[in-house]
From TrEMBL, chain A:
This is Mycofactocin biosynthesis chaperone MftB. Pfam families: MftB_chaperone. The gene is mftB.
TrEMBL record, chain B:
SMART domains: Elp3. Gene3D superfamilies: Aldolase class I (3.20.20.70). SUPFAM superfamilies: Radical SAM enzymes (SSF102114). It comes from the Bacteria. NCBIfam families: mycofact_rSAM, rSAM_more_4Fe4S. CDD domains: Radical_SAM (cd01335), SPASM_MftC-like (cd21123). The gene is mftC. It holds the Pfam family SPASM. This is Mycofactocin radical SAM maturase. Keywords: Iron, Iron-sulfur, Lyase, Metal-binding, S-adenosyl-L-methionine. PROSITE patterns: RADICAL_SAM.
Amino acid sequence: MLDQAWQLSPAVALRPEPFGALAYHFGNRRLTFLRRPELVRVVTALAECDDVRSALLEAGVPEPQWAAYAAALDSLAQADMIRPREGAA
Amino acid sequence: MTTLQNREAAPARPLGGTLIEQFELGLDAPICLTWELTYACNLECAHCLSSSGRRDPRELSTEQCEAVIDELQRMQVFYVNIGGGEPTIRPDFWHLLEYAVNHQVGVKFSTNGVRLDAERAAFLASPACNGYVDVQISLDGATAEVNDYVRGPGSYDTALRALANLQDAGFKDAKISVVCTRQNIGQLDEFKALADRFGATLRLTRLRPSGRGADVWDELHPLPHQQRELYDWLMAHGENVLTGDSFFHLAAFGESLPGLNLCGAGRVVCLIDPIGDVYACPFAIHDNFLAGNLLDEGGFQRVWQTSALFTELRSPQTGGACSSCQFFDSCRGGCMAAKFFTGLPLDGPDPECVQGYGEQALAGPREIPAASQDHSKANPTRNQPVMLTLSRRPDELSLPAAPPVSACAENPLAGFDPASLDTLPGGCGCSAGGTGKACC
């Protein structure tokens, strides 16, 4: 996943909260909580970054935590909160 | 309650911890809020938690309602539960529904079904609602007999007709919303079958002693063994049944039920009433839980973020009498509104505490708070439920000595039978009795 290009799903809105953010999917009406401000920064950075790795770098996530973040992004992907970016490698 | 003039500098908020712990500290906007559009209602349910019946002349206008929706969109409140009273009898209801959906505020509305004819059902199923509207039909009995006893004559047929109209129009996944009572706990399987029949989802919620519910709570609230029955049923069927997370007091039976086990009042939920007053939760329409009015300066956002009441609700709470109980971490002391309206202290056990502490508390001295408002109809109509059933005289009552005297008998000695005195000396009661002497 680290080398792929992702983005926030177009049907999802992020609402900032003191603990991170609340992600709401207008299509399937699912509510997900992003419980770390760093994760919110990563998710927000996805669209402008070439791949997940650069989004993690941009959000300042230390490399030892990348695997954990990739797992968190994977579960967000399963709920269609984030999607692979079309036309990207 | 008044709102603070200035937001006090909040202490640094701890990050991390569980989601529940974060929720207890409050959010920048509610996750979901309840908005009662009108106090007017065609029914007069015995347990109405908002004591609805008559419209309030101060109710928000169409323009004011649109402004509220605009603000909810700005605050990113993605979902509102609209209720009442009966919201669909507001002439602008369908307009406001569409307005909300077009402004990224999804709507789930509660109705008794009175206006859900074939045409409205088709509208709800149409692309105009974009699949972004949920409909919740209230039904408090799986049979007309049980339902109409509390909701009034004809209300069962109205609800089922509405469900049939929705199904015929192709509306997917309506909700059947049931307040669990002593009379209907035994019907849970029947409710599920009814929901399956209409392609609907069952939603069960807790009876609160709020509004007119305070008058009938003693008679209607589930008995302790029924609480267990409900808990077991929810554990077995919980995944496919909605509960509005309202049974967290049952968590003290052991395993927690699915959903949020926490009181969200003023933290993640609140209530906007028809005149724009903001209360801590839908079950707490009382001056003690009034945080402010959204028509005042700063609107809803200021009430939500800075009112003194909500700030207090988000501050760490003590468990009071419950803190030494081993189940406190599961049930968190239960429902604030249930405690308040039964006259119990807010930091003590829930009146329906499944460990039995509620019954002890209810047996002690307590004073039930007076209602701070009532929109019940001034005169009963034919829709009013009559909570009487035919029954035999309880055995413990002894038979009266004689039939009652007719109401028309005006003589002060009506019903007096001199012969009944025959057993007394002399028949007339005087001391000459039976001795041959002249008596009085």
